[in-house]
């Protein structure tokens, strides 16, 4: 399960940081800042949720080992 946790952690960070950065560049290129504003809440919500669940799962596996 360690590999799955590492993958989940990576995906959480990509959603939390990568998506807003991508939409920041799209907004800078197009001049339409609504792309960034509408992408921030879902990215943070999904990223933090995934991050917390993954860290809790890793903690449970560490305690059980």
Furnish the topology, listing elements before pairings.
Blueprint: H1 2-30, H2 34-64
Helix pairs in contact: 1-2
* Category by helix and strand content: mainly alpha
Poorly predicted regions are none
Number of strands: 0
Tell me the distance between the termini: 12 Å
Q: What is the ordering of alpha helices and beta strands?
A: HH
Tell me, rounded to a whole number, the average pLDDT. 92
**Number of DSSP helical runs:** 2
* Cα shape: elongated
Major β-sheet annotation:
none
Please state the CA-atom Rg, rounded to the nearest Å.
15 Å
Summarize the amount of helix as a percent range.
over 70%
The proportion of strand residues reads under 5%
What does this structure look like?
This protein has 65 residues and is mainly alpha-helical. The protein has helices spanning 2-30, 34-64. The protein is elongated and about 50 Å long.
Gist?
About 90% of the residues lie in helices and about 0% in strands. The protein has about 60 residues and is mainly α. It starts with a helix and ends with a helix.
Provide the descriptors you would attach to this structure in a database record.
mainly alpha; 65 residues; 92% helix; 2 helices; elongated
């Amino acid at each position: 399960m360690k590999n799955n946790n590492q993958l989940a952690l990576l995906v959480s960070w990509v959603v939390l940081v990568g998506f807003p950065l991508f939409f920041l560049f799209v907004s800078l290129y197009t001049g339409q800042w609504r792309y960034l504003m509408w992408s921030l809440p879902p990215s943070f919500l999904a990223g933090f949720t995934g991050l917390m669940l993954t860290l809790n799962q890793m903690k449970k596996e560490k305690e059980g080992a």
